[in-house]
Amino acid sequence: MIIAIILGLTGGILTTSIMTGLVDQKIRKGIANEVSHIQLHNPEYLKNFESKYTINCPDSIAQIIAKIPGVKGVSLHTRLTGMAASSNAAAGIQIVGIDPEKEKGVSSLYTSIPDSSGSYFTGIRKNQVVLGKKLADKLKIRLKSKMVIRYQNNDENLTEAAFTVNGIFQTSNPTFDELTVFVKKSDLDLLAGSDNGIHEITVLLNDIDLISSTEMELKKNLKGLDVENWMEIRPEMGYIASAIAVEVYILLGIILFALAFGIVNTMLMIVFERTRELGMLMAVGMSKSRIFRMIMLETIFLTSIGGIIGMILSAVLVGFFHRHGIDLSSFSKGLGAYGFDSVIYPFIKQDLYFNLSAMIIGTGILSAIMPARKALKLKPVDAIKVE
Predict the structure, then answer these.
(1) Same domain for 322 and 173
(2) pTM reported for the whole predicted model
(3) Residue after which a domain boundary falls, among 224, 247, 269
(4) How does pLDDT run across 23-66, given as a tens digit for each residue?
(5) Domain range spanning residue 352?
(6) Both 249 and 122 in a single domain?
(7) CA–CA distance, 22 with 30 (Å, rounded to integer)
(8) Is the dihedral of CA 61, 66, 68, 70 positive or negative?
C-alpha cells in the first residue's frame, strides 16, 4: 500500500510537471521571440493589416509606456507584407522593420541564432536581413546569400531591393520561422524615400503577472490605440494551456481511481485476514467505533508514510529534471511541428504541488472507509470461528 501511494504521488506530480513545463516553455518562448507581453496598434490596421494605418507620434507614446512601473522594454515595429525571392524560389513573407538595439529589450530572438548561422545585425552595413531557417531552406539560400525583398510602401508604390542574409534563426514555431524576416527600419525608409511609419508597439514586462494592470493603464491613457495582451494576439497559446490543464486533471483522475482501487483491495484483505482477531477484540468488549478508528488510523499512518516519501521523491525528481532537462531529441521533428522544444524542463507550482499531494493522500484515507465499515458488520461469535 505504501509503495502504491509513493508511485501514485510521484507519477502524478512528475507527469503534471512535465506537461506544465512543456506548455510553459512554449508560452514563454512565444512571448520572448514573437509577441512580447502587450502590443499596441492603430485599430484600423488590425482590420485588414493595411500599411497606411500607422501609429501617430510613436516615439512619444514609447516614452510614456517606458515610464510605467514594471515595463522592461519597448520597441517600435514597421510591419509590411511582401515577397522574398532568391534565384531558386519565392515566398510570401511578413517584413518587420526594427531598431536592432531596442528590439533586444523586448525580444530574445537574437539568442535563437546558432553561432554557425551568423548574427542578429552587425555594424552599419545596409540591407541586412535576418530570417528563419525554414524560410532559408524554402528559398534555398544560406548565410551571406542575396535575396530580393519586394513590398508596397505607404504610397502604394512597389519597392524592392537586394538584401544580404546576416543571420538565420530557428525557434520552436515553424510557421513563424517560415513567414517572418527582420530588417532595419532605417533601410526600409531609405528604400521607400520616406518614413514607412510604425504599425506596432511591443511591450515587455518584468513579470507576466503585471499584464492585467499594465494593460488597463495603457487603455486608460492611450484611448486612440488598440491594446492587446499575448493571449489576445495568439489565442492558440492560451487554448493549449487550457487543454493541458484539462488533460492534467483527467490523468490525475485516472491515477486517483487506480490508487483508490488498490487501497480498498489491500485494506479489505487486511480485514478478512484479521477477522478472527477483530472478533476476539469485540468479544472482550472493544466497541465497534474503536475498531473503526483503529483501521482508519492504520490507513492514515500508511498513507502518511507513503505520502511523505512520495512528496520528497517527486520534489527531488522534478528538481533534478528542471535543472538538467529531459532530452527528447529523437522526437524533435514531431515536437517541432507543434511548436514544442525537444528538451523539456519540468516544473510545478507550489500550490498545485501541495494540492495534488493532499488529493492523493485524501484519496488514500477515504478509500479506507469501506473496509472499516466492513469490519463493523462482523459478528463476534462468527468471527471467532474463522480459522
Answers:
(1) no
(2) 0.75
(3) 224
(4) 888 888 888 888 899 999 999 888 888 888 899 999 999 999 99
(5) 2-26+237-385
(6) no
(7) 12
(8) positive
